[in-house]
Design goal:
Elements: H1 12-18, H2 25-34, H3 41-62, H4 71-74, H5 89-103, H6 105-124
Helix pairs in contact: 2-3, 5-6
Length: 125
Amino acid sequence: MAPKKTSKKQSKSDFIRSQPATLSATEVVAKAKAAGITFSPQLVYNVRNGSKAQKGTAKRTAKAKPTTTSKRATAPRQAPPVPRPITSARSAEDLLKAVAAEIGLGRAIEQLQGERARVRAILRG
């Protein structure tokens, strides 16, 4: 019986990682084509960026953080700001003037009369 061939085929990603980082993506694709492997330059970018991310993750996991709580870890979540009601009559008047200037005096008066009627209907029950 003839012995089996045990040639292990190199994956595309392994081929890309074996190339120097100084080569451009198109140069890596050209070398791969000469070696009988076909892929796009985008794969070169993806593999190279993925290997950098894994290296960074390995560095972060190697440094064990102490179990003591830090200010950043225990700080409560900040809720989004809530609009505050108008606190002074002067700011209410300024706001009313600004709205009247924006939508027009006639339209602002119509809106106020509509609100007055709505409030009166609620108060009457």
